[in-house]
Amino acid sequence: MMIAQATVSSPAAPSAFFARWADMATWPEWNTDTEWVRLDGPFVPGATGVLKPKGGPKVKFVVTVLTDREFTDVSLLLGARLTFRHVVETSAGATRVSVAVTLTGPLSRLWNLVLGKDIKAGIQADLDRLAAVAEASTSGAVRSGAAGAGR
Question: Whose CB has fewer CB within 10 Å in the chain, the N or C terminal residue?
Answer without folding.
Answer: C
